[in-house]
Write a structure and sequence with these properties.
Helix content is 71%, strand content 4%. It is mostly helical. The protein has one domain (44-189): Ferritin, CATH 1.20.1260.100. It has a two-stranded antiparallel sheet with strand order 1-2.
Length: 191
Protein backbone atom coordinates (compact mmCIF):
# COMPACT_ATOMS: atom_id res chain seq x y z
CA UNK A 1 0.00 0.00 0.00
CA UNK A 2 1.25 3.43 -0.80
CA UNK A 3 0.20 6.60 0.94
CA UNK A 4 -1.35 9.46 -0.94
CA UNK A 5 0.16 12.87 -0.38
CA UNK A 6 -2.12 15.78 -1.13
CA UNK A 7 -0.96 19.32 -0.91
CA UNK A 8 -3.24 22.21 -0.11
CA UNK A 9 -3.77 24.64 -3.01
CA UNK A 10 -3.32 27.51 -0.54
CA UNK A 11 -0.24 26.10 1.18
CA UNK A 12 1.70 23.55 -0.90
CA UNK A 13 3.97 22.90 2.07
CA UNK A 14 1.08 21.62 4.21
CA UNK A 15 0.83 17.87 3.64
CA UNK A 16 -2.30 15.79 4.17
CA UNK A 17 -1.47 12.09 4.33
CA UNK A 18 -4.21 9.49 3.97
CA UNK A 19 -3.94 5.73 4.09
CA UNK A 20 -6.04 5.17 0.96
CA UNK A 21 -4.59 2.99 -1.79
CA UNK A 22 -3.35 5.03 -4.73
CA UNK A 23 -2.04 3.92 -8.06
CA UNK A 24 1.13 5.43 -9.49
CA UNK A 25 -1.01 7.59 -11.73
CA UNK A 26 -2.89 8.84 -8.67
CA UNK A 27 0.37 9.78 -7.00
CA UNK A 28 1.47 11.68 -10.08
CA UNK A 29 -1.91 13.44 -10.11
CA UNK A 30 -1.37 14.63 -6.54
CA UNK A 31 2.10 15.87 -7.44
CA UNK A 32 0.85 17.74 -10.51
CA UNK A 33 -1.71 19.53 -8.33
CA UNK A 34 1.09 20.61 -5.98
CA UNK A 35 3.25 22.14 -8.71
CA UNK A 36 0.71 24.70 -9.98
CA UNK A 37 0.08 25.73 -6.39
CA UNK A 38 3.78 26.23 -5.80
CA UNK A 39 3.99 28.09 -9.10
CA UNK A 40 1.07 30.28 -8.05
CA UNK A 41 2.84 31.07 -4.79
CA UNK A 42 6.02 32.03 -6.61
CA UNK A 43 4.06 34.23 -9.03
CA UNK A 44 2.29 35.77 -6.04
CA UNK A 45 5.60 36.58 -4.37
CA UNK A 46 6.89 38.17 -7.57
CA UNK A 47 3.69 40.23 -7.83
CA UNK A 48 4.03 41.50 -4.24
CA UNK A 49 7.64 42.50 -4.92
CA UNK A 50 6.48 44.30 -8.05
CA UNK A 51 3.70 46.13 -6.18
CA UNK A 52 6.01 47.24 -3.37
CA UNK A 53 8.81 48.39 -5.63
CA UNK A 54 6.31 50.13 -7.95
CA UNK A 55 5.35 52.25 -4.94
CA UNK A 56 9.04 52.91 -4.34
CA UNK A 57 9.52 53.85 -7.99
CA UNK A 58 7.18 56.82 -7.64
CA UNK A 59 10.12 58.59 -6.01
CA UNK A 60 11.98 58.26 -9.29
CA UNK A 61 9.51 60.62 -10.94
CA UNK A 62 10.27 63.37 -8.45
CA UNK A 63 13.18 65.69 -9.05
CA UNK A 64 14.91 66.40 -5.74
CA UNK A 65 17.15 69.10 -7.16
CA UNK A 66 19.13 71.31 -4.79
CA UNK A 67 16.24 72.02 -2.44
CA UNK A 68 17.01 69.23 0.05
CA UNK A 69 20.73 69.99 0.02
CA UNK A 70 20.03 73.59 1.04
CA UNK A 71 17.84 72.70 4.03
CA UNK A 72 19.10 73.19 7.58
CA UNK A 73 19.48 69.69 9.04
CA UNK A 74 19.91 68.31 12.55
CA UNK A 75 23.25 66.78 13.51
CA UNK A 76 21.62 63.34 13.63
CA UNK A 77 20.38 63.51 10.03
CA UNK A 78 21.52 60.28 8.32
CA UNK A 79 23.80 60.50 5.30
CA UNK A 80 21.94 60.52 1.99
CA UNK A 81 23.53 57.25 0.82
CA UNK A 82 21.84 55.36 3.70
CA UNK A 83 18.26 55.91 2.57
CA UNK A 84 18.40 53.78 -0.62
CA UNK A 85 19.70 50.58 1.00
CA UNK A 86 17.42 50.92 4.03
CA UNK A 87 14.32 51.43 1.91
CA UNK A 88 15.30 48.56 -0.40
CA UNK A 89 15.48 46.15 2.53
CA UNK A 90 12.23 47.49 3.97
CA UNK A 91 10.37 47.12 0.65
CA UNK A 92 11.60 43.51 0.42
CA UNK A 93 10.36 42.81 3.94
CA UNK A 94 7.03 44.48 3.14
CA UNK A 95 6.60 42.36 0.00
CA UNK A 96 7.28 39.13 1.89
CA UNK A 97 4.91 40.19 4.69
CA UNK A 98 2.06 40.88 2.27
CA UNK A 99 2.77 37.64 0.43
CA UNK A 100 2.65 35.61 3.65
CA UNK A 101 -0.79 37.04 4.42
CA UNK A 102 -1.93 36.56 0.82
CA UNK A 103 -0.91 32.89 1.07
CA UNK A 104 -3.47 32.45 3.85
CA UNK A 105 -6.50 32.52 1.57
CA UNK A 106 -5.73 35.19 -0.99
CA UNK A 107 -7.82 38.28 -1.53
CA UNK A 108 -11.05 36.43 -0.78
CA UNK A 109 -10.09 35.67 2.82
CA UNK A 110 -7.60 38.48 3.52
CA UNK A 111 -9.32 41.46 1.93
CA UNK A 112 -9.10 43.68 5.04
CA UNK A 113 -5.43 43.06 5.98
CA UNK A 114 -4.28 43.30 2.35
CA UNK A 115 -6.49 46.35 1.75
CA UNK A 116 -4.90 48.08 4.75
CA UNK A 117 -1.49 47.12 3.39
CA UNK A 118 -2.26 48.71 0.01
CA UNK A 119 -3.59 51.89 1.64
CA UNK A 120 -0.43 52.33 3.69
CA UNK A 121 1.66 51.57 0.60
CA UNK A 122 -0.17 54.28 -1.34
CA UNK A 123 0.46 56.72 1.51
CA UNK A 124 4.11 55.69 1.49
CA UNK A 125 4.30 56.46 -2.24
CA UNK A 126 2.59 59.83 -1.73
CA UNK A 127 5.11 61.13 0.81
CA UNK A 128 8.02 61.57 -1.63
CA UNK A 129 6.17 63.88 -4.04
CA UNK A 130 4.79 65.91 -1.13
CA UNK A 131 8.15 66.37 0.56
CA UNK A 132 10.69 66.41 -2.26
CA UNK A 133 8.53 67.31 -5.26
CA UNK A 134 6.27 70.03 -3.87
CA UNK A 135 8.57 71.05 -0.99
CA UNK A 136 5.73 70.76 1.53
CA UNK A 137 7.38 69.32 4.65
CA UNK A 138 4.45 70.31 6.90
CA UNK A 139 1.87 68.53 4.76
CA UNK A 140 4.30 65.64 4.24
CA UNK A 141 4.62 65.32 8.03
CA UNK A 142 0.82 65.20 8.46
CA UNK A 143 0.63 62.60 5.69
CA UNK A 144 3.40 60.59 7.37
CA UNK A 145 1.46 60.60 10.65
CA UNK A 146 -1.47 59.08 8.76
CA UNK A 147 0.94 56.57 7.19
CA UNK A 148 2.23 55.68 10.67
CA UNK A 149 -1.32 54.94 11.88
CA UNK A 150 -2.03 52.84 8.79
CA UNK A 151 1.15 50.80 9.33
CA UNK A 152 0.07 50.08 12.91
CA UNK A 153 -3.39 49.03 11.69
CA UNK A 154 -1.76 46.80 9.08
CA UNK A 155 0.50 45.16 11.67
CA UNK A 156 -2.52 44.55 13.91
CA UNK A 157 -4.49 43.09 10.98
CA UNK A 158 -1.56 40.87 9.92
CA UNK A 159 -0.90 39.54 13.45
CA UNK A 160 -3.80 37.03 13.68
CA UNK A 161 -3.23 35.89 10.09
CA UNK A 162 0.54 35.42 10.17
CA UNK A 163 2.70 36.64 13.03
CA UNK A 164 5.90 36.53 10.97
CA UNK A 165 4.26 38.88 8.45
CA UNK A 166 3.34 41.30 11.23
CA UNK A 167 6.85 41.15 12.70
CA UNK A 168 8.37 41.82 9.27
CA UNK A 169 6.61 45.20 9.28
CA UNK A 170 8.03 46.29 12.65
CA UNK A 171 11.37 47.58 11.22
CA UNK A 172 9.34 49.53 8.64
CA UNK A 173 7.27 51.06 11.44
CA UNK A 174 10.45 51.95 13.34
CA UNK A 175 12.02 53.58 10.26
CA UNK A 176 8.86 55.55 9.47
CA UNK A 177 8.76 56.66 13.12
CA UNK A 178 12.33 57.94 12.79
CA UNK A 179 11.54 59.50 9.40
CA UNK A 180 8.52 61.28 10.88
CA UNK A 181 10.66 62.82 13.61
CA UNK A 182 13.23 63.84 10.99
CA UNK A 183 10.50 65.24 8.71
CA UNK A 184 9.06 67.26 11.61
CA UNK A 185 12.51 68.54 12.59
CA UNK A 186 13.36 69.59 9.03
CA UNK A 187 10.01 71.34 8.74
CA UNK A 188 10.49 73.29 11.96
CA UNK A 189 14.17 74.11 11.30
CA UNK A 190 13.34 75.49 7.86
CA UNK A 191 10.00 77.20 8.49
Amino acid sequence: MSESVTRSPVNPFAVNESGADQSTAGQHGAQSKANPSLALRVVGLICWFFICFAAAATGGFVSVGDWYATLNKPSWNPPSWLFGPVWSVLYCMMAVAAWLVWCKGGWREQRIPLGLFLVQLALNALWTPLFFGFHLPGIAFAEMCLLWVMIILTVLAFWPVNRVAAILLVPYLAWVSFAAVLNFTLWRMNA
